[in-house]
Design a protein that fits this description.
Oligomer: heterodimer
Helix content of chain B: 25-40%
Largest interface: A-B, 42 and 37 residues
Distance between the termini of chain B: 159 Å
Structural class of chain B: alpha+beta
Structural class of chain A: mainly alpha
Largest sheet of chain B: 6 strands, antiparallel, barrel
Distance between the termini of chain A: 23 Å
Strand order of the largest sheet of chain B: 1-2-5-4-3-12
Helix content of chain A: over 70%
Strand content of chain B: 25-35%
Radius of gyration of chain B: 39 Å
Order of helices and strands of chain B: HHHEHHEEEEEEEEEEEH
Number of helices of chain B: 6
Number of helices of chain A: 10
Shape of chain A: globular
Number of strands of chain B: 12
């Protein structure tokens, strides 16, 4: 619970930072890797609630055409973080995820969320009429990724180190 | 159902609820329900923003400003040119504004004086003076506010040489307003110089093409004046005295006995022009008066116009309006 509260405080700071300096920190560049980091650090349903709440807050403060991140990220977190069932059928479904090295999970989720964020800001009319401009979509992407990916990499490394050193109590082994 | 299944269920339930909430919030946002909540959330964020801006405002602004700006050199040059141009326009507008304000002030003063003249009782326009004496005004433009400048002097001397005119006839030395009319336009030393009906000064020196004006504020300037007091019944003429210039840019009147009523706000007009009773010209207004030991008033007068405000003037000339002389035959009625 304490880690969830701390995560909430950090996420609030991230939104404030993005709102304060929107040019230096584009929308999602700081918040999305930190939300993903919070999901992977807390690794509990409380973490999903906290992350989902801040995604909702972000949607309310800075409205988007489609709430893709708010819809996809909690479900994706449930897929990744939920304990596995020892079933051959289910394991087959999750094999792909297992193939990816764990330290890359967080950067990949962050990359996905940034892409979803960029898609979600496109007006629905443009999507339906097929007038979506790829250049417009991709123009702010490098600046966001330039901040988000290294940050998520750093967070992933921190989580890994914390796991190795036993600093994180959220680690749970389910049999 | 194992503990792991329950836990898994909780994850999925939480994820699904949050996803559905996101969809619900999005719908609510499109229907405008979220607007009050948005304002409240922004209010919640504002203390943090203020703290951040206070703590690292300058450095962050610089960094974000650099990221925001990062214009090319050409953009910078264009912006600099635009800034310079707007600065020039601003200065030009300031100058024009000052000129217009000065014109407005002058116009207002002239209107006041015009009102004084229109009230009758001996005050008349300088141009209209039907009698044996005829006062006319020669229009002249002020070339300089101070004196004849070196470059202008050279030009006039050069022009005079080609016309065979000696230097002494061309150059006027001294301080004062320099006019573009001289002896060639029948301007004589001592002629009154006015702007409308307001006395600006007197011609001190004349050259062939230019003349120098001694302003009313010059300590050597003196003229006979008369006090006029406005009243509901019209202007009342008061005491006469001698107006002299003062070093501080104003004028003083002496020679008014202390028995005469004097008060601040009284108007000052000429008593006579070149010793001849003619049109009343305006000098200014009494701003202060005090007793002197000799039993007379020392009256301080604020001139109606400062010399710097004058751009064109009239030089008042006294002429004789010669009546048509009838022949002696016609007078006696002799028939040849």
């Amino acid at each position: 619970m304490k880690s969830a509260l701390m995560a909430g405080l950090i996420l609030w700071c991230c939104i404030v930072l993005e709102l304060t300096w929107p040019v230096a920190l584009p929308h999602g560049s700081l918040l999305l890797p930190m939300i993903c980091g919070a999901l992977f650090w807390v690794r509990t349903p409380a973490g999903i609630v906290v992350a989902g709440c801040f995604l909702l807050i972000d949607i309310m403060i800075r409205p988007v055409a489609l709430p893709l991140n708010g819809f996809v990220l909690p479900l994706l977190a449930a897929v990744i973080l939920a304990p596995e069932r020892r079933s051959h059928d289910f394991r087959r479904h999750r094999r792909l995820w297992r193939l990816i090295p764990p330290p890359l999970h967080l950067p990949l989720v962050t990359l996905l969320s940034v892409l979803l964020q960029q898609i979600s800001v496109i007006p629905v009319a443009s999507l339906t009429q097929g007038t979506m401009m790829v250049a417009d979509l991709l123009r702010p992407l490098p600046r966001i990724l330039l901040i988000a990916i290294p940050l998520s990499g750093g967070l992933s490394l921190t989580i890994r180190v914390a796991d190795e050193l036993g600093l994180r109590r959220g680690l749970r082994i389910t049999v | 159902v194992t503990h792991a299944d329950q836990l898994r269920m909780r994850y999925w339930l939480t994820g699904s609820v949050m996803a559905l909430l996101a969809v619900a919030v999005s719908f609510a946002d499109h229907s405008g329900v979220v607007s009050p909540v948005r304002a409240m959330l922004l209010d919640v964020m504002s203390p943090g923003k203020m703290v951040l801006l206070t703590l690292g405002g300058r450095s962050a602004t610089g960094a974000s400003g650099a990221a925001e700006r990062s214009p090319s050199r050409r953009d910078v040059d264009l912006l600099r040119d635009a800034l310079r141009e707007s600065e020039l326009q601003r200065r030009q507008l300031i100058i024009e504004n000052a000129g217009l304000r000065q014109e407005q002030r002058k116009h207002r003063t002239l209107l006041e004086i015009q009102g004084l003249f229109s009230e009758g009782n001996g005050l008349s326009d300088p141009v209209a003076s039907p009698s044996l004496t005829d006062f006319s005004a020669v229009r002249a433009t002020v070339i300089s506010d101070h004196q004849m400048t070196g470059r202008l002097r050279e030009l006039i001397i050069d022009a005079g040489k080609t016309a065979g005119i000696s230097r002494s006839e061309l150059v006027v030395d001294g301080d004062g307003l320099l006019l573009d009319k001289g002896s060639e336009s029948n301007v004589l030393e001592g002629d009154r110089v006015t702007s409308g009906a307001v006395v600006v000064g007197r011609v001190r020196k004349t050259g062939r093409w230019v003349s120098l004006v001694q302003p009313v504020t010059d300590p050597e300037f003196s003229a006979g004046v008369q006090l006029v007091r406005r009243s509901p019944d019209g202007p009342h003429f008061g005491a006469t005295g001698i107006l002299r210039g003062s070093d501080d840019g104003s004028c003083e009147i002496t020679g008014v006995p202390y028995t005469e009523p004097v008060s601040a706000g009284d108007e000052i007009v000429t008593s006579e022009v070149e010793g001849v009773r003619g049109p009343r010209l305006y000098f200014g207004r009494v701003v202060a008066a005090e007793f002197l030991d000799g039993g007379q008033w020392k009256i301080r007068v604020q001139p109606a116009l400062a010399t710097g405000e004058v751009t064109s003037v009239g030089i008042i000339r006294l002429d004789l309006a010669v009546p048509v002389v009838k022949s002696p035959d016609a007078a006696t009625g002799t028939i040849r």
